Amino acid sequence: xxxxxxxxxxxxxxVLRTFDPSxxxxxxxRYGLAPGTVLDTALEWDRLLPAITGRMTRAEWLATVAxxxxxxxxGLERATELMEQWQVxxxxxxxxxxxxxxxxxxxGLPVGLATNATIEFRDVLEDFGLSGEFDAVAVSAxxxxxxxxxxxxxxxxxxxxxAPPRCMLIxxxxxxxxxxxxxxxxxxxxxxxxxxxxxxxxxxx
Length: 205
Hints:
Elements: E1 7-10, E2 17-18, H1 21-30, H2 37-42, H3 45-52, H4 58-73, H5 76-86, E3 92-93, H6 95-106, E4 111-115, H7 121-127, E5 136-139, H8 140-143, H9 150-159, E6 167-171, H10 174-182, E7 186-189, H11 197-202
Parallel strand pairs: 1-4, 1-6, 4-5, 6-7
Antiparallel strand pairs: 2-3
């Protein structure tokens, strides 16, 4: 019989933080690039992996993106300018998701933020005023292992002092949900605009 979760792990980008793609598309178009080109380049796995496992800083990661795009935008200087502009837009925090996190904690259940991110991620939380909103923060770059690896989820569950069968992951990516379930957690796939009624019920709120 499935056990009711008594702790929550929740993703950051795509769940708590969202982005309007048109913001950076305007910048890309000024440099003659199709919308989404910079993000697609940044997320190429061989480039992303060292950044989210702590072997490369955010600045170093983005510098590799600039180098890759240099020939397409008229040189490295222009590519560096592009990246400086591209990373200005920080996205927005979804108030519905943040309210859900607060409700879970108010019910006495621990909440851990579970994110694949660079070593500077805690600065992002501070910039958004979110540093005190979680009982734990499982940053892949700090752990040296990334979602959806079992080792990542074991570490994240440990940070909220809860066994995997009692932890629920909310994430917007199927691959992460499958990895969490393989590690023994329950998982809920989030889609934009979700009112989170199902995880509320599952957590007994």
